[in-house]
Amino acid sequence: MQFIDLKTPYAALKTDIDAAIHRVLDHGQYIMGPEVKALEAALATFAGTKHCVTVSSGTEALLIALMALGVKAGDEVITTPFTFAATAEVIALLGARPVFVDIEPDTCNIDPRLIEAAITPKTRAIMPVSLYGQVADMTDINAIAARHGLPVVEDAAQSFGATYQGRRSGATSTIGCTSFFPSKPLGCYGDGGALFTDDDALAQAAREIRVHGQSARYTHTRVGVGGRMDTIQCAVVLAKLPRFEWELQRRRELGARYHALLAPLAARHPGFGLLTVRPDRDCVWGQYTVFVPERAKVQAALQAAGIPTAVHYPRPLHHQAAYAAGCCPDCCPGSLDAAARVMSLPMSPDLTEADQDRVVAALAEALAGLAADA
Q: Taking Cα atoms as reference points, which of 200, 217, 224 lies closest to residue 55?
């Protein structure tokens, strides 16, 4: 069994994807070819935003978003420590400081009730992460940001396609950023990303920044990066878009089925639990993640049964050497607890119900073994 099945979606779309790649090979515009604008228009329509700017990775999307907002050395950006390093990395690369706020214990998203206390005169932006495929509580976050005149950047790398109060992830804040890394809900076959905004000035800044700060050829109006998404990768995502709504629905269905099958285990086994999906949003399960006791033992038992697992993430960022300076080691206990207990199970839109049953049966056996040893 594969943890994430990337082969079946390609097989389903092979004719269209191959044709899309060969069109690029035929016209030879490998950088900023026509597929780039075509994908940006399609994604903006899908997300419901005025602008989409494709970039070379999800990390670059976050970096360019902060650069477009004018984040600089000495500034602070509020975010969560329970995320992939890229979220804090882009803040540090600009000489700013990530200020970590703890998570909600049942969703693992940033807790908006804790954000306002972290705002200082140096705060320049708030960057929530829509972890595991569920959008963070953007209504409360945006309200806090509005009171303090701050922009909000949603890290939607795992949640693209999810909805929150009727809006798509990526379209819920000042700027939304996503990733097209192959394992993401909408993945390309290399690296890529995009940012979304309704703000004309921010969109123009992002477009200039991604081409070394150029407003016209060899006219550098701002400091930029080499952040363009390759034409071939844009072509791949364009070819995958027609199947994407079906894939999102399958993710929702499989997530709901996992929840239904695993709820009895949560009732029987202390320390085993499921993530909560809030009623005003859905989850597209970029990762299907549960809480488990004695994780190493459970993972070993599942591996012996042929079931792959992963941990997203085993150590929060405020306990990582690169980002720990100036952080209180005990200020985010929820993140530490989650890091010790989370485990991700196989999830992709082409996961079969039979394989899902195998996963659940193996997990039930592993948990029963822990209980027997207790």
A: 224
The full DSSP string for 208-219 is HHTBTTEEETTE
8 Å CB contact between 297 and 354: no
Residue 227 CA to residue 120 CA, distance in Å, equals 31
* Chain centre distance of CA 199: 22
What is the C-alpha separation between 269 and 246, in angstroms, rounded?
A: 34
Q: How far apart are CA 2 and CA 336, in angstroms?
A: 28
* Spatial CB neighbours of 145, under 8 Å, sequence gap ≥ 6: 126, 151, 152, 174
| Placement of tokens 């807790």 in the chain | 111
Q: Which residues have a Cβ under 8 Å from the Cβ of 301 and sit 6 or more positions away? A: 362, 365, 366, 369
Burial class (CB in 10 A: 0-12, 13-18, 19+), 92: middle
Confidence (pTM): 0.97
Q: Is the pLDDT of residue 214 over 80?
A: yes
Q: Which residues contact 282 (CB under 8 A, 6 or more apart)?
A: 134, 162, 163, 252
What is the structure's pLDDT at 286?
97
Using CA atoms, how far residue 42 sits from 2, 50, 137, 174, 239, in Å, is: 30, 11, 26, 20, 11
% the chain with pLDDT above 70: 100
